[in-house]
Design goal:
This protein is mostly beta strands. It is built from two helices and twelve strands, in the order βββαββββββαβββ.
Length: 162
């Protein structure tokens, strides 16, 4: 059964598998943004419609009592591994070019420390203000959760909100 999520809602992974989950992969994918088409002189200068790299970044926050208590509990492109070994970021994709997951975070649920009640996943755009980029420019974005033991995607759907 698919779950439909709104921005800010949660899903319990323990309810999604009859046998329980040990390891999951959270995959993030997107395509390069297209620059607006320009005409005339500007088109010859700027090549309107060309792909524009957009750097989306997946992060995991390990929460205690619903709060981030320590910066060491943030796993992202600058800190690829949690100290417990429970959460590992697989590396940074700077453009979104190509098919499939552009970034992945692997979670071994059996290694999550007892004081951590939740792992929250976020997506941001690197240097969005400087590059004048926003999520409205991101094409074909998705986030998926995969049971690593069998490679099966856990059916979770979400509603895109701007």
């Amino acid at each position: 059964m698919a779950i439909s999520l709104q921005k800010g809602q949660r899903v319990s992974l323990s309810k999604e598998s009859k046998e329980g989950l040990d390891r999951v992969i959270v995959g993030l994918g997107w395509d390069e943004a297209r620059q607006p088409q320009t005409k005339g002189f500007l088109a010859s200068l700027f090549g309107g419609g060309e792909p524009q790299a957009i750097d989306c970044d997946a992060s995991a926050l390990l929460l205690q009592d619903g709060k981030l208590r320590n910066w060491k509990d943030v796993v992202y492109f600058g800190a690829l591994r949690h100290g417990s070994g429970a959460v590992q970021h697989q590396g940074d994709n700077l453009t979104g070019a190509g098919d499939g997951d552009d970034e992945q975070i692997k979670v071994d649920l059996s290694l999550v420390p007892a004081n951590i009640q939740r792992v929250a996943f976020t997506v941001t755009i690197y240097d969005a203000d400087v590059r004048r980029q926003n999520f409205g420019q991101v094409n074909n974005a998705f986030i998926r959760i995969v049971d690593e033991s069998n490679g099966q995607e856990i059916p979770v759907s979400y509603t895109h909100l701007r």
